[in-house]
Hints:
Elements lengths: L12 H4 L9 H27 L1 H9 L4 H32 L2 H18 L5 H4 L2 H29 L7 H39 L1 H5 L1 H13 L5 H8 L7 H6 L2 H12 L4 H10 L1 H7 L8 H29 L1 H23 L4 H28 L6 H18 L1 H12 L4 H17 L14
Helix pairs in contact: 2-5, 2-7, 2-8, 2-10, 3-4, 4-7, 4-19, 4-20, 5-7, 5-10, 7-8, 7-18, 7-19, 8-16, 8-18, 13-19, 14-15, 14-19, 14-21, 15-16, 16-17, 16-18, 17-18, 17-21
Amino acid sequence: MNLSSPSTPESSRLDTSQVRVITADGKVVRKATIAGTMGSFVEWYDYGIYGLLTTYLAVNLMGSKDVGSLLLTNVGFLVSFLARPFGGIICGYLGDKLGRKTLLAVLLLMISGATAAIGLVPSASVIGWAAPALLILLRILQGFSAGGEVAGAMSFVGEYAHRNHRNFAQSFIAVGSFFALFFGSALSALLITTLGDTTMNSWAWRIPFVLALPLGYIGFYIRSKMEDTPHFNALRERNVVERNPLKTVFTSKKHLAAIALTIFLPAVNGPGYYLLFAYMPTYLKTSLGANNFTMLGALVVTAASLVAIIIAIPIMARISDRFGRKPVLAWSAVATAVLSYPSFLMITTGNMGLASLGAVLMALAFSGHAASVHTVLTELFPTTVRYSAYSIGFNVSTIIFGGSAPLVMTAIISATKDSMVPGYFSIAASIITLVTVFFLRETKGQELTTH
């Protein structure tokens, strides 16, 4: 590893704040990318299978699969997001004060352990109300852990990566999240096809949840073998680690303004991640009236869109590294807004081919945002408070635009009988993101700031 910086007296906090050229060799950057991606995989594998297997959770842990039970199951989805800011604040504070590496390794064990525990909860027929209570409790633990994971993993990789290739390196964390959803979809489809709905309802729905434990241990092992980031180590070596990062964040107008951008810029993440991918199988199977898909058909549609976005994200990240973050984010927001209505029209036809085409078009439109948004959020903040500030803003955004989406969509569709509701939400969120892009400064090719 090569830490290079201008010759600066270590005792000078003012001079140290100008240290920006900090690099690591390519092999170490690749290891950091793998470590960050593995965490993203485990986190989104959890959210993916939860969304995919909602109906089975409703039957087993809520007692039935009617609308009320689905709403209650989706409350479990929401409460995990309500817990995220608390995890983000606490983990962000610890990450900025003590370092990224160890904390991220522990978070991975917490996420995977809570996911596996859901697969071991006895059914409502055995323990009654305790089954949904345990589900909610475990979802809170998952949300707390995930609240510290995203900003930490992105900061971890971003603080290793070269400034000219930072977006490309960080984009693999996003790829890991979508590959996790794809893996969860494929595994669920395989189990449903080979075992059938009866066996899935009986016990096989538990398999994907329990599988999270060994996946989490693999990620923990990889992360535990890494050093902390060169940027954080540079702060530690010069004894300028922020003593109270949260106080610094909340007393700085500059940081508060950046947090506001961090809340509204990822607005389109709601329809992007949580509606188009995590919620889509449930939407197709339960919200389209006479045109309902089978669960297997819903997973096929979702898988088609996942393949498209997995391929597109690294390409869009390369474009962002070359031409800028703002053009890619703006293009993606416009494309998502324009394609949302016709794409959801195709999805709601109930035709497998048209639904797959609509989902793929939405995935391609969203890919530019998914590829670039987290790199921008990393570049908005200095190393001293990056983990804390990033976590606060992004987790608040996730509650507003993402975590509530499945619950709200299910309730509105049930009340209005309008299956196009997700399309309207996608358009509105895209407009919010597009407006926010105009308030950003371009950060392509810039070194990460220290203070």
